[in-house]
Amino acid sequence: MSNIYINPYFTTSYLRRNTIIISVIVLLFSINIFGQENKIDFGVKAGVNYSTLFFGNDVPSEFPASFNGKIGFHIGGFMRYKFSEKLMLKPELLFSTQGAEYLLDTSEIIIDPNNPTFNNNYKADINEYMLLLPILLDYYFNPKFDVEFGPQFAYVVSNEITDNNDNIELSLGNYDKFEVDLCLGIGYNFSEKYRVGLRYNFGITERNNRKSSVFQLGLQFRI
Predict the structure, then answer these.
(1) What is the pLDDT of residues 79-110, one digit of tens each?
(2) Residue from 152, 142, 180 nearest 91 by CA
(3) Where exactly are the structural domains of the chain?
(4) DSSP letters along 154-208, please?
(5) DSSP state of 106
(6) C-alpha Rg value of the chain to the nearest Å
(7) What is the pLDDT of residues 41-54, one digit of tens each?
(8) What's this model's pTM, rounded to 2 decimal places?
(9) Which helix (H) or strand (E) holds 25?
(10) How distant, in Å, are the alpha carbons of 23, 43, 85, 127 from that of 97?
(11) Three-state SS for 31?
């Protein structure tokens, strides 16, 4: 029997042109301010992610599938440009592992329970390995507490899908690799060097008719 391919109404939209334009703008801006050394510092950061996915608007609410969250990690570096002691611009470059567990109730789409493809609990583990470019404004209420917000541009370097059924394959179609997120976070500074932060990233654009949702808990060290 041939395999059944499940494509849950995924569609493709491309952001390559906008991403290239934005990257060039960020590069030119960074070059322009790089010479102002007294206003710039650098650092490294790492932490854990809790990520999941949401279906986009084109997937009907009655479609018998859902997503569960999963744990991953992120690691990378950042730069801070000080507009003042309270307001800073903080671009980062991160490698991040994220994704979700895809759950499908096949009893809703396979009528014959004797069909070898039948499995009430079809699961597929979606793993995405991503490069993230958040460009955030960081506001310090005082030397200890700050809030950060801004856009994030993300690119999927690679992805893996594993499942529990040899007769069903989750198909993502023409896999879109670009997305834009909105980030909001809070931080606590132990000292001038160390900061712990909690951030939420939500996809404001759809990739293959789904949006990302990621919590990040990280520790950063200013060099």
Answers:
(1) 999 999 899 999 999 999 999 998 887 766 66
(2) 152
(3) 4-34+61-222
(4) EEEEEEEEEES-TTEEE---S---EEEEEEEEEEEESSSSEEEEEEEEEESS-BT
(5) G
(6) 20
(7) 999 999 999 999 98
(8) 0.79
(9) helix 16-34
(10) 22, 20, 33, 7
(11) helix
